[in-house]
Amino acid sequence: MKTHIYSSLELPQSIVAIGAFDGVHRGHQTVIRQAVQRGRKLKVPSVVFTFDPPPRVFFQGARMLTTVDEKLAKIEKLGAKHAVVARFDKVYAGRSAYEFIDCLAKLNPVEIMVGGDFRFGKDRIGDICLLEKYFKVRVTQPVCCSEGSIISSSRIRQLISEGEIHISNSLLGWPAGK
Asked: Which of 17, 20, 22, 152 has its CB surrounded by the most CB atoms within 10 Å?
């Protein structure tokens, strides 16, 4: 897998999965695998577009589940051809939704895959409806654990803070910190 900094990659076509992917938990793995499979089917490279640090860590001081290197190693194991890492800082957080769309346009996405709650741009002004004006967007369904609740990085953080390592590892799909 090739890793690129924000806006340095240009492709003639691609399938793009976008997300913070903190922890690369089972829900994230599903999104990335779907992008990789679509890319193989359509014979175009799969790209995972992610952020370092994750926006929730930047804005709310949440604990990171994985370092960027750990995240990239896990993404590579899932088969993505490229990863784009946007350095999420004050300058990046101030970019408009349209600047983000312009960056994505360089990847010439055949499809973009996002979660249902995906927002982008300054003040989270961009949403799936705006993205759909420019690209074909596929919204992935949330992945639930056996008890029916949605797997999320926030839930995993909470479980780890409560000492529920076995459950958090189950939701991650691999041991935390590995």
From this structure: 17
Torsion angle defined by CA atoms of residues 127, 88, 48 and 45, in that order, rounded to the nearest 10 degrees: 100
pTM check: above 0.70:
yes
Residue 127 identity: D
pLDDT in tens, 123-164: 999 999 999 999 999 999 989 888 888 999 999 999 999 999
Report the candidate in 41, 23, 56 with the shortest Cα–Cα distance to residue 110.
41
Question: What is the crossing angle of helices 165-172 and 153-161, to 10°?
Answer: 160
Position 128: which residue type?
Answer: I
Query: What percent of the chain has pLDDT above 90?
Result: 87
- Residue 159's alpha-carbon distances to 20, 21, 55, 164, 166, in angstroms, are 19, 17, 20, 5, 9
Residues 6+ apart with CB under 8 A from 166: none
